[in-house]
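User: Design a sequence. Structure:
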């Protein structure tokens, strides 16, 4: 087979790009360094008979057009929209249950505050309207600031019209909320600390920011563009994200892409300012005049390319692109489902969505505080799911798996090393869960601890950053990954980016991969050579 494009990495964005490029008549070759495709979106066995959502446990959600174009449901992907979707645990043993219906959620809020219950549907509406406007930006290539093309100006004009159509109240809110600290934003709406924290947590998920950090309002809005439900819909896939990325790989192959696993790219070769080949870890050289990298921007530019090939100013900007990882991931094999205080009824029904431990704004901020000084949070913020509830085959009969996203575990520690800290990390998580589900520890049969260091070394995430780079106002849209290069192109002729380090870069949406493929098809003439 002759390839005309090499794609580095087999994450969900790269697979999406491969699919659209193949559909566009190109012949992509995907090279993934791990033994499985999917990147952060895999389902792997971590103890005999137990399989979990290895890293990510909910799905973006994926952009709807991608689900349709790749015919993912026909390929066996069963998307689950859990109801209840989110259970926020309070410090005093109560729980606030968010369902898929705003009115039912308002009823659940009423015992905490009648005022908040009244305001909740109004907040849902405001978030949905601003989110809908911003959703239009997700599928667009950020325009050039210096010299926008005619089509970019046209797109900007259309966006401006939609912005005006939002009305005064919502357009003002949009401008004001972005730079705000999410703690201030939620306090303008609600008085219940638990509700404030449940809504605000999405704005700090996977970032090195706390709810009082300026600009977290923008991350809340970005989240709303992808999924407007306050606190998130917790959409997932039966069998975990690995089922999704296997189906994406199948769609890409069927469209004409070739995918190789166990194929690590060590170097991108450059000749006269244009890419010419990739070199694999085993020394194999694969010629390529078009290369699309799904690895993060720092790994791509600082790890794979001889620095002499790039302009020093550009290199400085890439070095300044921030990747401060703060997340650890733990998977537990359990004898049975835990009984969380405040949640009544059959746990298999009540635990369908996410369980959040982060009972107040101050709690979340304190968890963040520790990480500012290079320490893991003694009382961490946890986001928990039970993938085996949606697919019992992920655990032996009667048993379960539990997936825990733990924050904050700073990649850079003040003292010690992550390789020696597995035990203390697991102990902090166990202690925190035990506080909300007495007897939990006795249910644990096995556990897997994935520190930020492991995220970097095994999963290829520079700095252990789950989004390939901080989601912050100065690293979004026209500035992702850096000003002047937000259009998926790079200073090297023939080299493109398609991973989460490009716009919009927020979870498993596939938007970066699809947008990048569109730009490659526009820019790169069909050439053979790989
Ligand atoms: C712990 C954790 C929890 C998360 N939770 C959620 C969640 O619940 N919901 C959600 O929507 N998102 C979540 N995310 C974020 C989301 O999973 C990622 O942002 C998204 O999957 C990134 O997709 P990607 O295709 O851009 O990159 P990746 O998935 O990172 O894929 C990049 C691929 O490139 C490969 N690669 C890198 N370098 C090379 C090389 N030199 N040669 C060959 N291959 C290479 C890597 O092995 C990897 O497979 C989470 C992420 C993590 C880490």
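Assistant: Done.
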């Amino acid at each position: 087979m002759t390839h005309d494009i090499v794609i580095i990495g087999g994450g969900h964005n790269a697979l999406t790009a491969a699919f659209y490029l193949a559909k566009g008549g190109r012949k992509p070759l995907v090279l993934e360094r791990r033994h499985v495709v999917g990147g952060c979106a895999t389902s792997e066995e971590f103890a005999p008979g137990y399989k979990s959502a290895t890293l990510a446990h909910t799905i973006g959600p994926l952009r709807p057009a991608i689900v349709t174009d790749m015919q993912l449901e026909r390929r066996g992907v069963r998307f689950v929209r859990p109801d209840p979707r989110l259970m926020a645990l309070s410090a005093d043993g109560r729980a606030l249950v968010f369902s898929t219906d705003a009115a039912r959620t308002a009823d659940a809020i009423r015992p905490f505050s009648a005022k908040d219950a009244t305001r909740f549907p109004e907040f849902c509406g405001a978030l949905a309207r601003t989110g809908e406007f911003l959703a239009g930006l997700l599928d667009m290539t950020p325009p050039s600031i210096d010299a926008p093309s005619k089509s970019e100006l046209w797109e900007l004009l259309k966006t401006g019209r939609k912005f005006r159509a939002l009305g005064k109240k919502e357009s003002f809110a949009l401008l004001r909320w972005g730079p705000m600290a999410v703690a201030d934003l939620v306090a303008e709406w609600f008085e219940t600390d638990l509700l404030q924290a449940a809504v605000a947590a999405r704005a700090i998920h996977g970032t090195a920011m706390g709810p009082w950090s300026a600009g977290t309002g923008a991350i809340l809005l970005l989240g709303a563009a992808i999924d407007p439900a306050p606190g998130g819909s917790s959409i997932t896939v039966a069998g975990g994200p690995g089922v999704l990325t296997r189906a994406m790989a199948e769609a890409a192959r069927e469209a004409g892409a070739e995918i190789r696993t166990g194929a690590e790219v060590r170097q991108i070769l450059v000749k006269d300012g244009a890419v010419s080949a990739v070199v694999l870890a085993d020394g194999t050289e694969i010629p390529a005049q078009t290369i699309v990298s799904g690895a993060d921007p720092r790994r791509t530019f600082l790890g794979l390319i001889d620095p002499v090939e790039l302009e020093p100013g550009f290199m400085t900007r890439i070095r300044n692109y921030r990747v401060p990882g703060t997340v650890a991931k733990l998977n537990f094999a359990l004898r049975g489902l835990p009984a969380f205080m405040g949640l009544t009824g059959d746990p298999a029904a009540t635990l369908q969505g996410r369980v959040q431990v982060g009972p107040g704004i101050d709690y979340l901020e304190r968890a963040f505080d520790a990480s500012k000084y290079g320490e893991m949070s003694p009382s961490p913020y946890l986001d928990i799911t039970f993938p085996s509830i949606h697919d019992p085959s992920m655990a032996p009969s009667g048993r379960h798996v539990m997936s825990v996203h733990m924050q904050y575990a700073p990649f850079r520690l003040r003292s010690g090393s992550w390789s020696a800290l597995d035990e203390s990390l697991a102990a902090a998580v166990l202690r925190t869960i035990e506080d909300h589900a007495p007897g939990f520890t006795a249910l644990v049969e096995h556990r897997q601890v994935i520190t930020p260091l492991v995220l970097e070394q095994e999963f290829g995430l520079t700095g252990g950053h789950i989004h390939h780079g901080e989601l912050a106002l100065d690293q979004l849209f026209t500035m992702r990954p850096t000003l002047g290069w937000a259009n998926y192109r790079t200073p090297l002729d023939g080299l493109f980016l398609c991973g989460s380090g490009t716009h919009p870069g927020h979870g498993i949406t596939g938007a970066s991969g699809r947008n990048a493929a569109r730009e490659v098809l526009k820019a790169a003439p069909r050439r053979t050579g790989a």
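The radius of gyration is 22 Å. The mean pLDDT is 96.
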